[in-house]
Design a protein that fits this description.
The chain is of the alpha/beta class and about 500 residues long. It folds into 2 domains: about 270 residues, Aldehyde Dehydrogenase, Chain A, domain 1; about 180 residues, Aldehyde Dehydrogenase, Chain A, domain 2, CATH 3.40.309.10. It contains 15 helices and 20 strands. The strands form 5 sheets. A 7-stranded mixed beta sheet has the order 14-15-16-13-12-17-18, sandwiched between helices. The structure holds nicotinamide-adenine-dinucleotide.
Amino acid sequence: MTAKVLAPQSFYVNGRELAPQGRTLRELVDPADGHVLTTVPDGTAEDVDAAVRAAREALENGPWSRMSGRERSRILLRVAQLIRERADELAELESYNVGKPITLARYVDVETAIEQYEYWAAMAQGLDGATRKVPIPAFAYTVREPVGVVGAITPFNFPLILGSSKIGPALAAGCTVVHKPSDETPLSALFMARLFTEAGVPDGVVNVVPGTGPVVGEALLRHPGVDKIAFTGSSAIGRHIAGLAGQHLKPVTLELGGNGAHLVFADANLGQAVDAVIRAFVFNTGQFCMAGPRLLVERPVYDTVLGMLSEAVPAVPVGDPRNPATVVGPMAGERHLQKVESYLDLAGTDGGTFLVGGKRRAGDGFFVEPTVITDLPETSRVLTEEVFGPVLTVQAFDTEEEAVALANSTPYGLAAGLQTSSVTRAHRVAAQLRAGIVWVNDWAMLDPSMPFGGVGASGFGRENGPDVLEAYTRTKSVLISMAEPAAS
Ligand code: NAD
C-alpha cells in the first residue's frame, strides 16, 4: 500500500463486508497534510444490532467457544503470522490514518500486535479449572467459561494495539466480539476483521462496526446481547460508560486517561535520564495515555537538566510520518491539535515560560512543536489535566517526600517513572507512586505478560498479563454428589 487514496472501507459483520448504503460517509484525512484518504460509513444502532446478533449466534451455536484451547491457539498463531506477513501494509495504514511515524507504526504498533496474539495463543491453552476437596461426599470442580459477547470500544491513538489487547484475550477465552474502533481511526480494525476470517476465525466471532460514540458506542452498551464491555478512552467518557454499564448490569473494564510524573533524582545518570524524559513525552506525538508529561527534577540538577533539554528537544526529528527517521509526526486530527493549542495558550496566561517550542508548526498538517514549559503554578490546569500532546512541564523538588506528593497530586494514576542510581530508592519510591505501572531508568517498556491499567481517574481493570483472562471468563462450580443412594 503506497497509494495516498485508499479504497472505501465498510463494516464487517458475520464474516462479510456490509454495503454502506444509506449511512453517513465519514471522510478520513491524512493528518500530515489534510488530504482525504478514504471514506468509512458511520454505523447505526441497527448495524450494532446485526453485529451483536451475529456474535451471539457464533457464541451459542458456532464452533468457537466449544473448540479446545489448543485449536483456538493455532488460529490465534495464524492471526499473528498473517499480521507479520502484512506488517508493512498495516504499518502504513496506521501511519496514514493516525499520522504515526512509520518506524513507530511498524516496530511498536504492528510488532506489539504480533506479540499480543502470540501471547494469547499460548494463554488459550491454559484455561483450566481446579478440583476442590469439600467436606461433603461430592466431587467438586470449577470450570472457566467464556464471559460471552464482548463489546470492545477503543480510542484513536493506538488503534491496532488497543484492539488486540481486548480481542486477543476475548478470543483466547472463547468469547465473541463486536469492536467499535474510534470514528477517527477505524482503518486498521477493518483491515484486521478480514485478516481474522483469513486466519480461520469463524464468521460472526469478530465483528467491526465503526461510527460515533453516542450512536454505535451507546447502542453497544445498551444492547441486551452484550455480556461485557472493554473500554479504553478518556476519563470523562469512561465515567459515563461506567454509569451505563451499572444501569445495564454489564461488567466493564475501563482503561482511561493519564498524566504521568517522571522523577529525576540528582544521583541519576543524567544523559540516560534525559533520553528517557524526551521519549516519555514525545512518544506517539504525546498522544500516549502512559506518557510522562510532568517532569519533576531534584533541585541540585534542575538547571543542568533544563540545559540538556533545551539542546536535545529541538533536535528531535519532527515531520513527514513516512520518513523512517521521523520521531514526532502530526497530531492525529485537527481537534487534537486545537486541544493542545488551547493548553499552550493557557500556559502563557498562567505565567509559564516556554523553554522550547510552544507553537503550532507553520504549513500543512496538524503539527505542533515539541514543547517544554517551566514556572507554572501548581494549580495550573496544564499540570493537573491531560494535555495529550508533545508537551512537557518541569517542576523542581527538594526532598523525596515532596517529589512523591507532587507525583501523586493529580486524580490520575496510570504510569509513573523515576531516574535514580539507588536500588533502594527505586523500590521505596515505586511503592509510593500511585500508578498502575512504574518504570525505573527507562520509560514505556511493555510486554504482553505485564499487566497495565490505572487507579483513580485512570480507571480500573487491567490489560495484558495472565490475570486478564479473569475478565473474559466466568467460573462455574460443579458438585457431583458421591453419596450412596439409599437402599430401596
Ligand atoms: P474518547 O473517550 O473520546 O473515545 C474513546 C472511544 O469511546 C471512541 O471509540 C469513542 O467513539 C467512544 N465513545 C465516545 N463517546 C461514547 C459514548 N457516549 N458511549 C460509548 N462510546 C463512546 O477518547 P479518545 O480521544 O479517542 O482517546 C484519548 C483518550 O484515551 C485519552 O484520555 C487517553 O489517555 C485515553 N487512553 C487510555 C489508554 C489506557 O490504556 N488507559 C490507552 C489509550 C488511550
